[in-house]
Amino acid sequence: MSPGRVYVAREIALALVRAAEQGDVDAMRGLMSDSFVGHVTTAGGGSRHASRKQYLDSITLMDVGSAGQRLSMTDAVEVEPGRVMFLVEVHAERGGRRLHNYSGQLARIDEGRISELWMVDALPAESDAFWSI
After folding, report:
1. Which H, E and C letters describe the chain, residue by residue?
2. Fewest beta carbons within 10 Å, which of 26, 47, 71, 120?
3. Other residues' Cβ atoms within 10 Å of the Cβ of residue 13
4. Which fold has domain 3-131?
5. Model pTM greater than 0.90?
6. pLDDT tens digits, residue range 104-123?
7. How do the domains of the chain map onto residue ranges?
Protein backbone atom coordinates (compact mmCIF):
# COMPACT_ATOMS: atom_id res chain seq x y z
CA MET A 1 0.00 0.00 0.00
CA SER A 2 1.45 3.36 -0.94
CA PRO A 3 1.73 6.19 1.63
CA GLY A 4 -1.24 7.90 -0.05
CA ARG A 5 -3.39 4.81 0.32
CA VAL A 6 -2.40 4.49 4.01
CA TYR A 7 -3.50 8.10 4.49
CA VAL A 8 -6.86 7.38 2.81
CA ALA A 9 -7.35 4.25 4.94
CA ARG A 10 -6.53 6.27 8.07
CA GLU A 11 -9.09 8.90 7.07
CA ILE A 12 -11.74 6.20 6.52
CA ALA A 13 -11.00 4.71 9.96
CA LEU A 14 -11.10 8.15 11.58
CA ALA A 15 -14.42 8.92 9.86
CA LEU A 16 -15.82 5.66 11.24
CA VAL A 17 -14.68 6.54 14.78
CA ARG A 18 -16.20 10.04 14.52
CA ALA A 19 -19.49 8.63 13.23
CA ALA A 20 -19.56 5.99 16.00
CA GLU A 21 -18.92 8.70 18.60
CA GLN A 22 -22.08 10.46 17.45
CA GLY A 23 -24.08 7.28 16.92
CA ASP A 24 -24.48 8.35 13.27
CA VAL A 25 -25.42 5.02 11.71
CA ASP A 26 -26.09 6.59 8.31
CA ALA A 27 -22.52 7.89 8.11
CA MET A 28 -21.20 4.55 9.36
CA ARG A 29 -23.28 2.70 6.74
CA GLY A 30 -21.72 4.84 4.02
CA LEU A 31 -18.22 3.87 5.19
CA MET A 32 -18.96 0.14 5.22
CA SER A 33 -19.22 -2.12 2.20
CA ASP A 34 -22.48 -3.96 1.61
CA SER A 35 -20.69 -7.20 2.49
CA PHE A 36 -19.20 -5.79 5.73
CA VAL A 37 -18.46 -8.28 8.50
CA GLY A 38 -17.63 -7.19 12.04
CA HIS A 39 -15.84 -9.34 14.61
CA VAL A 40 -16.21 -8.18 18.20
CA THR A 41 -14.76 -9.75 21.35
CA THR A 42 -17.16 -10.97 24.00
CA ALA A 43 -16.90 -10.98 27.78
CA GLY A 44 -16.41 -14.76 27.64
CA GLY A 45 -13.24 -14.41 25.58
CA GLY A 46 -14.77 -15.38 22.25
CA SER A 47 -16.04 -13.20 19.48
CA ARG A 48 -19.33 -12.53 17.79
CA HIS A 49 -19.69 -11.87 14.11
CA ALA A 50 -22.06 -9.31 12.67
CA SER A 51 -23.26 -8.25 9.26
CA ARG A 52 -23.38 -4.53 8.50
CA LYS A 53 -27.05 -4.40 9.53
CA GLN A 54 -26.44 -6.28 12.79
CA TYR A 55 -23.42 -4.12 13.62
CA LEU A 56 -25.32 -0.88 12.98
CA ASP A 57 -28.38 -2.13 14.88
CA SER A 58 -26.15 -2.75 17.90
CA ILE A 59 -24.86 0.86 17.71
CA THR A 60 -28.46 2.11 17.65
CA LEU A 61 -29.38 0.00 20.70
CA MET A 62 -26.42 1.38 22.67
CA ASP A 63 -27.94 4.89 22.50
CA VAL A 64 -24.52 6.54 22.58
CA GLY A 65 -26.11 9.99 22.55
CA SER A 66 -27.36 9.55 26.11
CA ALA A 67 -23.88 8.57 27.30
CA GLY A 68 -21.93 11.57 26.08
CA GLN A 69 -19.53 9.13 24.47
CA ARG A 70 -16.13 10.54 23.56
CA LEU A 71 -13.80 8.55 21.35
CA SER A 72 -10.21 9.22 20.36
CA MET A 73 -8.13 7.31 17.86
CA THR A 74 -4.41 6.76 17.56
CA ASP A 75 -2.65 6.99 14.24
CA ALA A 76 -3.52 4.15 11.94
CA VAL A 77 -0.73 1.73 11.09
CA GLU A 78 -0.62 -0.33 7.92
CA VAL A 79 -0.07 -3.95 8.95
CA GLU A 80 -0.34 -5.30 5.41
CA PRO A 81 -1.80 -3.98 2.17
CA GLY A 82 -5.44 -3.03 2.72
CA ARG A 83 -5.36 -3.60 6.50
CA VAL A 84 -5.03 -0.77 8.96
CA MET A 85 -4.77 -1.10 12.74
CA PHE A 86 -5.63 1.59 15.28
CA LEU A 87 -6.49 2.02 18.95
CA VAL A 88 -9.68 3.70 20.15
CA GLU A 89 -10.02 5.15 23.65
CA VAL A 90 -13.59 5.31 24.95
CA HIS A 91 -14.99 7.63 27.63
CA ALA A 92 -18.70 7.55 28.42
CA GLU A 93 -20.93 8.37 31.36
CA ARG A 94 -24.61 7.89 32.13
CA GLY A 95 -26.81 6.90 35.03
CA GLY A 96 -24.00 7.76 37.45
CA ARG A 97 -21.73 5.16 35.83
CA ARG A 98 -18.52 5.78 33.92
CA LEU A 99 -16.74 3.76 31.28
CA HIS A 100 -13.09 4.21 30.34
CA ASN A 101 -12.01 1.54 27.93
CA TYR A 102 -9.79 0.83 24.94
CA SER A 103 -10.29 -1.27 21.86
CA GLY A 104 -7.79 -2.38 19.30
CA GLN A 105 -9.30 -2.28 15.83
CA LEU A 106 -8.15 -3.76 12.56
CA ALA A 107 -9.97 -2.67 9.42
CA ARG A 108 -9.77 -4.13 5.95
CA ILE A 109 -10.36 -1.43 3.36
CA ASP A 110 -11.54 -2.45 -0.10
CA GLU A 111 -12.36 0.12 -2.77
CA GLY A 112 -12.56 2.95 -0.25
CA ARG A 113 -14.93 1.23 2.19
CA ILE A 114 -14.50 -0.94 5.25
CA SER A 115 -15.23 -4.54 4.33
CA GLU A 116 -14.18 -6.17 7.59
CA LEU A 117 -13.52 -4.88 11.10
CA TRP A 118 -12.01 -6.77 14.02
CA MET A 119 -12.50 -5.12 17.41
CA VAL A 120 -10.72 -6.41 20.51
CA ASP A 121 -12.23 -4.72 23.56
CA ALA A 122 -9.82 -4.38 26.50
CA LEU A 123 -12.65 -4.67 29.05
CA PRO A 124 -15.51 -6.48 27.30
CA ALA A 125 -17.46 -7.39 30.48
CA GLU A 126 -17.36 -3.79 31.74
CA SER A 127 -18.29 -2.49 28.33
CA ASP A 128 -21.22 -4.92 27.99
CA ALA A 129 -22.49 -3.99 31.47
CA PHE A 130 -22.23 -0.25 30.77
CA TRP A 131 -23.97 -0.33 27.38
CA SER A 132 -26.77 -2.66 28.53
CA ILE A 133 -28.18 -0.06 30.97
Report:
1. CCHHHHHHHHHHHHHHHHHHHHCCHHHHHHHEEEEEEEEEECCCCCEEEEEHHHHHHHHHHHCHHHHCCEEEECCCEEEECCEEEEEEEEEEEECCEEEEEEEEEEEEEECCEEEEEEEEECCHHHHHHHHCC
2. 26
3. 24
4. Nuclear Transport Factor 2; Chain: A, (3.10.450)
5. no
6. 999 999 999 999 999 999 99
7. 3-131
